[in-house]
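Key result, reporting period 2: structure in, sequence out.
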């Protein structure tokens, strides 16, 4: 069995174990609610229950980082490192491994905020660092795909379309915050993109031509660009 398939099965096993544990807990104790999840809200592409499960599963790890006095900024840089490794793996066609490292990058991206809030160290400087690292991590992912698709210009253009859509959704949020207006929630926000892109990579080892990854790229390109245009238009009507 290849390393990519091992990575894929390891990831799916972890998700399955977390899901079973969480929903057994919900059955007997009810849903666990988090202020951060309530603030972000769910969407048709990423439900609140799935976000709550993820936050619940990360709580012990967040407590561990707090116990060992590992700062939120260090965790942000760990997210960057895992994201860079994922991009490198994609460039060489190791989609299962890339998905595994991309998942850890996304989880550490969520953890840095948790640790900052638990240690009362949240700051504007930390927010800037976190947002900047998010953009670099996304760039690494798409850049790896562009290198992998170097002999197929159509797939490179598709990847670039997904890249600009992703960045424009984030830009619309940043622009709204700068103008002090509330943008519509929209779709393909950062957590949704991270989940679907990771899932596309994770499932690609089951396909000889990376069809799951290509399908996700089409999905991100269409929805993210449409969402970005709609949000920017709505913001322009508010200022």
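The corresponding designed sequence is given below.
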């Amino acid at each position: 069995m290849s390393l990519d398939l091992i990575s894929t099965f390891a990831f799916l096993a972890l998700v399955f174990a977390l899901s079973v544990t969480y929903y057994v807990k919900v059955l007997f104790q009810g849903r666990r609610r988090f202020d951060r999840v309530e603030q972000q809200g769910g969407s048709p592409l990423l439900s609140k229950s799935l976000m709550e499960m993820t936050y619940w599963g990360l709580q012990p790890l967040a407590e561990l980082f707090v116990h060992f006095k590992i700062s939120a900024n260090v965790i942000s840089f760990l997210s960057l490192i895992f994201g860079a490794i994922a991009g490198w793996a994609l460039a060489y066609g190791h989609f299962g491994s890339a998905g595994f490292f991309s998942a850890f990058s996304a989880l550490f991206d969520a953890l840095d905020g948790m640790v900052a809030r638990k240690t009362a160290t949240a700051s504007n400087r930390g927010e800037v660092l976190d947002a900047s690292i998010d953009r670099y991590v996304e760039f690494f992912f798409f850049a790896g795909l562009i290198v992998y698709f170097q002999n197929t210009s159509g797939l490179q253009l598709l990847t670039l379309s997904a890249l600009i859509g992703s960045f424009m959704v984030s830009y619309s949020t940043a622009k709204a915050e700068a103008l002090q207006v509330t943008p519509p929630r929209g779709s393909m926000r950062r957590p949704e993109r991270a989940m679907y892109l990771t899932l596309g990579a994770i499932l690609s080892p089951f396909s000889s031509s990376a069809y799951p990854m290509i399908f996700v790229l089409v999905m991100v390109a269409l929805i993210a660009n449409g969402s970005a245009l709609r949000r920017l238009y709505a913001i322009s009507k508010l200022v």
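The mean pLDDT is 92. The chain has nine helices and no strands. This case is discussed further under Risks and Mitigation.
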